[in-house]
Specification:
heterodimer; A: Gyrase A, domain 2; Cyclophilin; seven-stranded mixed beta barrel; B: Cyclophilin; six-stranded antiparallel beta sheet; 18% helix
Chain lengths: 237, 330
């Protein structure tokens, strides 16, 4: 039988289970369930589990696994079998998703805080006001955290706002709200980046001393709302 | 116990074996580029392999030892001297108080590691001393070392003064590590195919295995950009972001390659055409801009065996170092 997933090595210390290569809430929830199952069935040498849109990756130390577990076919085969077991054990997800927390994020759009809004408006032939309205009209799901500490990948944006990444990364300030493809996201720290930056939030997404130091978790729901320059300044810590 | 930075180098940071287990928060492991050299530096001075070490790039810093200190330098050869006398690498060395360590020329390799007995008292963030420069946390205040920084050490359990002969600036202890097996054939880098390997055009697969790639000058701790004949996928792929690892070789839209190194981001969306085997990451970490890489396909089981053998040897080395040190000071 053809399995509806693929498992492949990510080097010699990690392995990925790919559920179908789609931005899809069901697949993302399935990936989360597999992560939970793996945490409950942790093995010696397990180092990290990373959930992305529709994939789960396990990082492990092969020497520890080999010392503590019987792996006649090698450590990779041992971990692969465990992932297959996780896929089966987590079963079929049906019914509506338990909805995560709704987090509202203020954004100052355009101008200095959103340097790419003007250009996006020109290329898309949509007024800036309409872009802001469209960007704020959707309750997004946090599909994954990656790229930078606490960077949430939110989906999906209105098709009219889908925008290509820049060909070269440029400096982006912490709080920058950007669009890339059908995703939108927020830069938690200053970093070079290729997303089209349409605004900036004064909310801190990364606090080194907090535990967890990041603001979002996969499954959270996020909605943006526009604020003025003055409000932005007054909300800046 | 402490040392102070008289003059900083190009990029000196505290690192350990990485901040493991926080990838799902988007927090990358970071850590020493050459994890083998970092561990050996610790083992030689009687530390466990997970202590913080100083990762040094060339030009290196000038460092003042404020007390007698047991140190080890591993990794690249930057002609380390203590009060202008050459000191050996891959060997424990007791240095006298008020001596100055510096690095006079770049002979071989890309980064060296300085350990001190006891280990540095850095900032431990999420269970790791590794410096995360982007988030500004871990290591030494989340920053590279600067002029005037005074780095304290943890408790000193060995009395070193007795090991120093009169007037000498330092005393190298009589054992060293043979690293021949780890770094031989420095340009030959083993890989296992990545998920998108099969999607490469046959000519590109051939190119990857047959031709050399040069490390581009813009390479850093995040990644090595490679220069070679451009490669293409048979059919274009639109990938969703997913996890990547230390050693993942990605194909960029312009047909060039990048090898992700210690400070790589947790996820990426470019085709993963290969993964450098972990046992060869130390060699790769010691290659410099303009050095050539020749990729060589390795069977996944062989890669796993090579890595576990390397780790077993480190366990043996740890016991041997402890025995030698105990014999010497008891």
């Amino acid at each position: 039988m053809d399995k509806p997933f693929a498992i492949f090595p990510l080097g010699d210390c990690a392995i990925t289970l790919d559920l179908g290569h789609l931005i899809d809430e069901q697949l993302n929830r399935k990936a989360l369930c597999i992560q939970e199952w793996l945490k409950a069935h942790a093995f010696p040498g397990l180092q990290d589990i990373i959930v992305a849109y529709s994939s789960v990756s396990i990082f492990y130390d092969p020497e520890i696994v080999r010392r503590q577990r019987d792996c006649p076919g090698g450590v990779y085969d041992y971990v692969k079998a465990l992932l297959e077991e996780a896929w089966i054990a987590t079963g079929v997800l049906d019914g509506p998703a338990a909805s995560g927390a709704l987090i509202r994020i203020p954004v100052c759009y355009g101008g200095r805080e959103g340097p790419d809004l003007e250009e996006l408006s020109r290329v898309k032939n949509i007024t800036k006001e309409d872009i802001i309205q469209l960007h704020c009209s959707i309750i997004y799901r946090v599909y994954m955290i990656g790229f930078l500490p606490g960077f949430p990948y939110l989906g999906k944006v209105d098709v009219r706002l889908e925008a290509e990444r820049k060909s070269r990364p440029v400096p982006v300030r912490a709080g920058g709200v950007g669009i890339a493809g059908n995703q939108t996201g927020i830069y938690p720290v200053n970093s070079p980046g290729g997303w089209q930056i349409i605004g900036r939030t004064p909310i801190k997404l990364f606090e080194r001393a907090a535990l967890p130091p990041i603001r979002f978790a996969i499954g959270d729901r996020v909605q943006f709302y526009p604020i003025s320059q003055e409000e932005f300044r007054s909300l800046c810590p | 116990m402490s040392l102070s930075i008289i003059k900083p180098g190009l990029l000196d940071t505290l690192q350990d074996l990485g901040r493991i287990g926080y990838g799902s928060w988007g927090i990358n492991p970071g850590g020493a580029m050459d994890r083998y050299a970092a561990q050996v530096a610790n083992l030689l001075v009687g530390n466990c392999g997970e202590e913080a070490v100083m990762e040094i790039h060339f030009p290196g810093p000038q460092i003042l030892f404020e007390q007698n200190t047991l140190i080890a330098i591993t990794g690249a050869n930057f002609s380390a001297t203590v009060n202008d006398e050459q000191i050996p690498r891959w060997q424990p060395v007791v240095v006298r108080r008020n001596t100055v360590l510096q690095f006079s020329s770049l002979v071989e390799g890309a980064r060296c590691y300085l350990s001190v007995h006891g280990g540095y008292c850095g900032e431990k963030w999420l269970n790791s001393y590794s410096t995360n420069l982007k988030a500004g946390v871990g290591g030494w205040h989340g920053q590279p070392l600067r002029k005037g920084d005074e780095l304290p050490f943890k408790e000193n359990t060995i009395y070193f003064a007795g090991l120093l002969k009169d007037e000498s600036n330092f005393e190298a202890l009589p054992w060293r590590v043979n690293t021949e097996k780890i770094y031989r054939w420095p340009h030959e880098i083993g890989f296992i195919p990545g998920r998108e390997w099969e999607g490469l055009s046959p000519a590109s697969q051939e190119n990857f295995i047959q031709n050399n790639f040069l490390i581009h000058p813009s390479s850093d701790r995040m990644g090595y950009q490679l220069k070679g004949s451009p490669m293409v996928m048979d059919r274009p792929v639109e990938l969703l972001s997913s996890a990547v690892s230390f050693g993942t070789v990605q194909l960029l839209p312009d047909g060039q390659l990048i090898v992700l190194m210690a400070d790589h981001q947790t996820t990426g969306g470019y085709p993963r055409i290969a993964h450098v085997i972990s046992a060869h990451l130390p060699k790769l970490a010691q290659l410099r801009p303009c050095d050539a890489i020749q990729f060589k396909r390795v069977d996944a089981t062989a890669a796993e065996t090579l890595l576990t053998a390397q780790q077993k040897e480190l366990h043996i080395l740890q016991r041997a170092c402890m025995d030698h040190l105990n014999e010497l000071v008891c």
